[in-house]
Write a structure and sequence with these properties.
single chain, about 20% helix, about 170 residues, 6-stranded antiparallel β-barrel, alpha+beta, Pnp Oxidase, Chain A
Length: about 170
């Protein structure tokens, strides 16, 4: 992974996680996740109609586990994004700076695999966010499989990519 990507991951702290949310009918009030998971157990993802596949997103504080190229975050197991990521562990992630100046746009698009965090990753997370020990929840990791880094300061068409070897 390019050093510029590593530095960006260390410098940021909020990740936007997107997970697959297949359902037979969209309802703005969102049916309970347990009902969704019961239904999707009997429906193969490949057979879902396109209009029945949605994406659910959540933002979380993260710490970068550089040794394992993973993002570590805390959330409660009953949340929609954790329930869905447990069922569909291939997820998408974005991390971006907040700017209106085109020349200062910087961010990452990531494909990752969701899994429980290791003890080492727990230590990394709590070293960065010691106050998080006070809140409920469990720690999870997003193993980075692919990343595309945009930094307009490097040039508008310059992108850095990372592909994890199998």
């Amino acid at each position: 992974m390019h050093q510029a990507i590593r530095e960006f991951l260390h410098a940021q702290h909020i990740v936007s996680l997107s997970v697959l949310y297949p359902q037979t009918q969209y309802s703005p009030d969102s049916q309970h996740v347990e009902n969704l998971l019961e239904h999707t157990q009997s429906v193969a993802l490949g057979s879902c109609a396109l209009d029945s596949v949605w994406i659910h997103s959540a933002s979380c504080f993260y710490a970068f586990d550089e040794a394992n190229l993973a993002l570590v975050f805390k959330s409660e197991p009953h949340t929609t994004h954790i329930q869905l990521a447990t069922r569909y562990p291939n997820v998408s992630v974005t991390i971006a700076t907040n700017t209106l100046q085109i020349a200062k746009i910087e961010g990452l698009q990531i494909r990752a695999r969701f899994c429980p965090a290791s003890d080492t990753q727990n230590a990394i997370y709590y070293a960065r966010f010691p106050f998080a020990r006070l809140g409920a929840g469990e720690l999870y990791a997003l193993e980075i499989l692919y990343a595309k880094y945009t930094n307009n300061a490097l040039g508008l068409s310059k992108k850095l990519e990372f592909h994890k070897n199998p």
